[in-house]
Specification:
This protein is of the alpha/beta class and about 350 residues long. It is built from 11 helices and 13 strands. It is elongated, with a radius of gyration of 21 Å. The structure holds 6-O-phosphono-beta-D-fructofuranose (F6P).
């Protein structure tokens, strides 16, 4: 009987439980024993690894679409443990302990559900996983993982952010004012762009596209309404200004006489019942991960490419994106996917008269 471990690392998002549910059921049908590692790699560093046996009863279907993760007991995860180890100068001991405790579990395979930081770190510390098959499943609301068209959690985050904006529209209209909504997403504008289009935003500012404040002001002043949404990704910057991007833009609009307020949906974007699209992606990726184990693959990530689920080498993933230094872990370069100039949604938004910056 194969022994399979599941670990979720990095920030949470809706959809993690759907992946875990599908792995439990698909794995058990194959006759495998499934173990959940609690609290990411932190669950592996104590004297006794924090591991539980997962069975069909562990996660009933009605809890499999709830946000969060049954494998997370607290606010700790993969990178946090590594960060603390780096900060306390105990990086080498930390990785040694991880490998020792992981080997002690005698797993045949580990499914790591993580974001681009976790993937880059897993590749950098790949020796930890050399005694088993490592299969990764991409999850993040940021959609910044290269080589996959979708990540688990993105669709739900778009839905959460869109509903947040929808709720603001009536008060915006009642008070003849604009809402500058700041989305999450780090250095990738995918979430802001997608939810911005879905929210009928008048302007969408993302880190990938330079913008001109005067043109933004002109665009808002010439709008057919005196209210609406201006979506601002948390990754944008404005020369000579510091602080939260939405506040910067809000001040500029106020200075130009445009009535506005800011709104910060924050971690609500990582919450909410998992959308059907994310649940379906979770089922397909879980199935592909189990297949990859049967096919003796290792150091691979499941990926959605042109509608098909496939696997790609983690080495290719980490060498494909735009490199960015991790601020907390020295020597770690994270590989980022970003929105390209010819992104069809970006082009459509531009064609629909949404101000998306200086694209030409
Ligand atoms: O990577 C996911 C994400 O939600 C980003 O969009 C955001 O910048 C960050 O995590 C927030 O992290 P924390 O939960 O530590 O505040």
């Amino acid at each position: 009987m194969k022994k399979l471990g599941i670990m979720t690392t990095g920030g949470d998002c809706s959809g993690l439980n759907s992946v875990i549910y599908n792995i439990i059921h698909g794995g058990m049908r194959r006759g495998w024993a499934i173990y959940g590692i609690l609290d990411g790699t932190d669950g592996l560093i104590g004297a006794t690894p924090n591991v539980v046996r997962l069975t069909a009863d562990t996660l009933p279907p009605e809890s499999a679409f709830v946000a969060g993760s049954i494998l997370r007991n607290g606010n700790v995860g993969h990178t946090n443990g590594f960060e603390r180890a780096v900060q306390s100068g105990k990086y080498a001991q930390f990785t040694k302990m991880l490998k020792k405790n992981l080997s002690g579990l005698k797993l045949d395979a580990l499914i790591l559900i993580g974001g681009n930081g976790s993937l880059s770190l897993a590749w950098k510390t790949r020796d930890i996983y050399s005694d088993l098959q490592l299969i990764c499943i991409p999850k993040t609301i940021d959609m910044d993982i290269p080589l996959t068209d979708k990540t688990i959690g993105f669709d739900t985050a778009v839905s959460q952010l869109t509903h947040f904006c929808d709720d603001l529209m009536l008060t915006a209209r009642s008070h003849h004012r604009w809402f500058v909504v700041q989305s999450m997403g780090r250095n990738c504008g995918a979430l802001a762009l997608t939810a911005g289009v879905a929210s009928m935003a008048r302007a969408i500012l993302i880190p990938e596209i330079k913008f001109d404040v005067d043109k933004l002001v002109k665009h808002i002043k010439s709008a057919p309404t005196d209210y609406g949404i201006i979506m601002v990704s948390e990754g944008i910057s404005l020369r000579g200004h510091s602080g939260r991007p939405a506040d910067m833009i809000s001040r500029k609009l106020s200075a130009a006489g445009i009535a506005n307020r800011t709104a910060f949906p924050e971690h609500i974007q990582r919450a909410g019942d998992t959308t059907p699209n994310d649940r379906i992606l979770a089922a397909r990726m879980a199935d592909a991960a189990l297949d990859a184990i049967e096919n003796n693959e290792t150091y691979v990530m499941t990926a959605l490419q042109n509608g098909e689920i496939t696997t790609v080498g983690i080495d290719t993933v980490v060498s494909s994106g735009h490199p960015e230094r991790d601020p907390n872990i020295s020597d770690l370069t994270i590989s980022n996917a970003t929105v390209s100039d010819d992104d069809p949604l970006l082009v459509a938004a531009d064609n629909m008269g949404i101000y998306i910056g200086e694209t030409k």
